[in-house]
Amino acid sequence: MIPQVLGNRASEADRWASLPERGTPLSLRAIAWIAIHIGRWGARLLLYPITLYFVITAHAARRTSYEYLKRLRGEPVHWWHVFHHFHCFAATILDRVYLLRGEFERFRVTVHGKEILHRQIESGKGSVLLGSHLGSFEMLRALGVMQRSVPLKVLMDAEHNQNITRFFDALNPTVAGTVIAPDRPDTLIRIKENLDAGCFIGMLGDRVSGGDKTTQCEFLSAHATFPAGPVLVAATMRCPVILFFGLYRGGNSYEIHFEHFADEIILDRNHRARDIQLWMQRYAQRLEHYARLAPYNWFNFYPFWD
User: Fold this and answer.
1) Which domain holds residue 239?
2) pLDDT tens profile 215-247
3) Which of 66, 218, 258, 277 is the most exposed, having the fewest neighbouring CB atoms within 10 Å of its CB?
């Protein structure tokens, strides 16, 4: 039996939205000062005690890391695996400071499938660029916007984790200005206008927000709730969909992967729930593929499986 699209699943969205924000404005400013004035090497050294602190105190995130890594590895998980997982996340957050400051020369970035992106840009038609909380979406966002190589707008809820959102927005108001807020009266109008202008609309397909329509997909051998929004937006706008995964490979290395996903998503009126589930299951399969390529890049630190 194919799982059906559900109604609004606010309780499941709240599993991550209700988690308290850990970073304070003062601590964020302190880390940024070290990153800018002492350098990346000094800031990266500071990540070790910070990571250890969170491994000890972030109980819910630690349990989720254990569950995810056990599902992925299929063997026992130890505390140092969780430490590595948290440290990878912290490293990408630190690197966001340099990306938003335009210091791209610090990083070695390998791009796979860039011809897919370039063909879409040359067509002059907009597309949904579907990413995830696997690795760094900010790598593409900063490079695309600041170097004007990718015309990009991002559909993103900025209400959660407001401290860190405001902090990074202040570092680069230009990048912050590319955000389209969801659930506004003019959201679909803004999406349509930008697609018609040849822009990419960045969306993340692996986290449910309050009020989202959802569907059930198999991910790492168990059912999990995924948002139906990316499929619904693409089907409404009748635009292509390209997958994006920005994997952190340690040190100063990143890999950006682009994949063709759909020329157009058409939903059968009589089998709408089934079609949405099938499309999101395809996405979940590709997400699992890249999670296995870069297992410590999974940054959904909340109870993910149903």
Assistant:
1) 6-297
2) 999 999 999 999 999 999 999 999 999 999 999
3) 218
